[in-house]
Specification:
alpha/beta; Four Helix Bundle (Hemerythrin (Met), subunit A); Rossmann fold; 434 Repressor (Amino-terminal Domain); eight-stranded mixed beta sheet; 8 strands
């Protein structure tokens, strides 16, 4: 995500390292490269010019913090201005006070509108809501069938009246049924076109005026860059667009659409979507400050924590803490549980990108091998219950049997055992130093006191 832009910005910051302070010359040199980076990211010239002017004014003004180095100062200022450019704060979906919130999904064909509709429905279902999907695209071949298949996958009902009824009538009937059956969210998947035309806009205007949706969300392909902004501007002229969903963000190396849409149209980005897989983590609420952090290569730790909190229950966290407080440490059953929970949080590639500093630590072009976790799970599942609980009994013959049973090599089994040992060593060290960091795990105070007593005896 935004790899090309991130790389160019980090290269710019690196050139400022070692310099004593920000001056008019080094700021101008840095901003020249920032300007080129944003233009290459397909951000419009008008927006880039205003952005650079704002950064320059702050960099040479009184807002520079003396405790920061020049590269950190300029990075902080650029991060703040990127956040302002994308909308400053997250914009939530409006909920209708009547009890049934109607969302109308619009966009060009191929933007990922139907998939985004299903992802949105799953999000609401996960939150305990009662969503209804509406198949109002009667023109695209198999559009209704596609939505029905997706609805079956996520176990959410799909309202359909076939292809012989007008989309306006379908939308009206769906909303009436939703009210009668107490559906709290209605998501209308409307028809798209290969390009914007009068027939498309006229039909969408009729649907909007008849069902009066709580929100009208425009779905745009982020990989189209400035074209996505042009689409947003055209739709906004004829429809009351209340929010944007950016799709295919994982394939966008530049970031022009994300950086331009809010500034160009005034319409907030409400969600970003990655990939075609429909699960709880391929559709995220859009937070401008977190996206700015990702663009700068500083990760997105807040989103990572949000995902972890949604996956790990309080009971699991308490059980893990009790294990860490004991001298037994973690075993392979714990490791297997962690692997399964991590899988629920999203792809490893995506999670690593959220860890601050990790993108810099990995070699350029390095790929995360998802198969390594599969191999590790296979190794653990090939162990007996006793071996999982106590890896100390894993002698050579046992390791050879496990390798053969899991389809791996003995060296991979050895590596996994070493990883578990290292994890326990790290947790033991953390337990010793826990009081210094306000942590509750381990028996830090006693250990610390014992060390002080030993020093006095000497």
């Amino acid at each position: 995500m935004f790899e090309s832009l991130t790389e160019k910005l980090q290269s710019t910051f690196k050139k400022l390292s070692g310099q004593g302070k920000l001056t008019e010359k080094n700021v101008s040199d840095a901003l020249r490269e920032v300007r080129f980076a944003l233009l290459e990211a397909d951000v419009s010239y008008k927006i880039v010019r205003q952005f650079v002017d704002d950064v320059k004014e702050r960099s040479l003004g009184q807002e520079v913090l003396g405790s920061l180095t020049p590269e950190l100062q300029i990075a902080k200022i650029i991060g703040d201005e990127l956040t302002n450019l994308m909308g400053q704060k997250s914009e939530k979906i409006q909920v209708s006070p009547s009890g049934t919130t109607v969302l109308m999904m619009v966009g060009l064909q191929g933007s990922g509108k139907t998939t985004a509709s299903a992802k949105l429905a799953l999000k609401f279902k996960t939150e305990g809501r009662n969503p209804l999907l509406v198949a109002a695209d009667i023109y695209r071949p198999a559009a209704i069938e596609q939505l029905q298949i997706l609805g079956e996958q996520i176990e959410i009902p799909v309202f359909s009246m076939g292809i012989d009824v007008s989309p306006v009538s379908i939308a009206q009937a769906a909303v009436e049924q939703a009210i009668n059956r107490s559906n709290t969210f209605v998501i209308i998947d409307t028809a798209g076109r290969l390009h914007i035309d009068e027939d498309l806009m006229g039909e969408l205007e009729n649907i909007q005026s008849c069902v009066n949706p709580t929100e009208t969300l425009l779905v745009v392909d982020s990989m189209t860059g400035q074209d996505a902004v042009n689409v947003a501007e055209h739709f906004s002229k004829d429809l009351d667009i209340t929010g944007v969903i950016l799709t295919k963000l994982d394939g966008d190396a530049r970031g022009g659409a994300a950086l331009s849409i809010r500034a160009a149209t005034g319409t907030p980005i409400k969600f970003v979507s990655t990939g075609e897989k429909i699960d709880g983590h391929t559709l995220e609420e859009f937070y401008p400050d977190r996206m700015a952090s990702r663009i700068l290569g500083q990760g997105d730790f807040k989103t990572l924590l949000d995902r972890a909190e949604s996956i790990f229950s309080e009971e699991q966290a308490k059980e893990l803490e009790e294990k860490l407080m004991s001298k037994k440490g973690l075993d392979f059953n714990d490791m297997l549980t962690q692997f399964e929970q991590i899988n629920k949080m999203g792809s490893l590639d995506q999670l690593i990108g959220m860890v601050p500093g990790m993108s810099k630590a990995l070699p350029k072009g390095a790929q995360v091998d998802e198969n390594q976790m599969k191999y590790a799970k296979s190794i653990i599942q090939s162990m007996t219950l006793g071996e999982r609980r106590n890896y100390a009994i894993l002698d050579r013959s046992r390791r050879q049997r496990i390798a053969k049973g899991s389809g791996t090599r003995v060296s991979q089994v050895n590596q996994l055992v070493s990883q578990l040992k290292m994890m326990n060593q790290m947790f033991n060290q953390q337990a010793v130093h826990a009081p210094q960091f306000g942590l509750s795990i381990g028996k830090g105070p006693k250990n610390k006191l014992a060390r002080k007593k030993r020093k006095r005896r000497r």
